[in-house]
Backbone:
């Protein structure tokens, strides 16, 4: 499998501190998407950091216009692990319109609360949003069952248990997980199997060493 990339933002950061971001002009991103889709058969796309919902909507719309069957995963990175805030959700109607074009979102317990203006629990918000797309509620910040993920879809919920008693936290682990899911979708797996395979991969990554930077094993 080939991996392609379009940068939505260039960052200055380490695993310990976020310093600065320079967002990529939207027109440049859209032109990049057009070029790649004209030249490659792209099965799945992961979207990461974005400066606004309007920016995200343009990207999603362009992808679906070029290739309606391409799977889209949005890694809802609203804030970095080093506490830099990328995006604020201000328009629920616009959010829902975007989710209806996306196949999967991957929020953690902190992010899911920011995807809704309700006072509901993380689980209830995930259930509500899953009427629009699959929702993988990541368990890294789960206050009750750390490391246990829940995949919400079609009024159902699949529990993805952790096989590890303890893990070493990593900078960018959410990005690794969503990228792994996207790669597995590109291989033709459905969202449930892709999520299970990515769960296995991320656990190996988390326990690859004791630092905040992990090793990838292929």
Residues:
């Amino acid at each position: 499998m080939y991996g392609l990339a379009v940068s939505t933002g260039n960052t200055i950061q380490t695993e310990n501190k976020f310093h600065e971001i320079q967002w990529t002009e939207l027109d440049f991103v859209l032109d990049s998407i057009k070029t790649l889709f004209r030249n490659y058969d792209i099965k799945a796309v992961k979207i990461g950091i974005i400066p606004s919902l309007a920016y995200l909507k343009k990207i999603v719309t362009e992808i679906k216009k070029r290739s309606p069957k391409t799977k889209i995963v949005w890694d809802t990175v609203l804030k970095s692990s080093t506490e830099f805030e990328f995006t604020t959700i201000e328009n629920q109607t616009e959010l829902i319109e975007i989710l209806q074009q996306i196949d999967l979102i991957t929020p953690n317990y902190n992010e899911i609360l920011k995807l809704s203006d309700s006072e509901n629990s993380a689980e209830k918000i995930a259930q509500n949003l899953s009427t629009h797309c699959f929702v993988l509620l990541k368990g890294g910040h789960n206050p009750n069952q750390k490391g246990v993920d829940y995949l919400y879809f079609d009024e159902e919920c699949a529990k993805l248990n952790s096989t590890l008693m303890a893990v070493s936290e990593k900078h960018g682990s959410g990005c690794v997980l969503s990228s792994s899911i996207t790669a597995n979708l590109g291989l033709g797996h459905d969202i449930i199997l892709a999520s299970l395979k990515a769960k296995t991969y991320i656990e190996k990554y988390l326990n690859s060493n004791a630092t905040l930077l992990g090793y990838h094993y292929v």
About this structure: The two ends are 13 Å apart (CA to CA). The mean pLDDT is 91. The helical segments are 26-39, 53-66, 92-99, 109-114, 122-129, 173-186, 191-206. The longest helix spans residues 191-206.
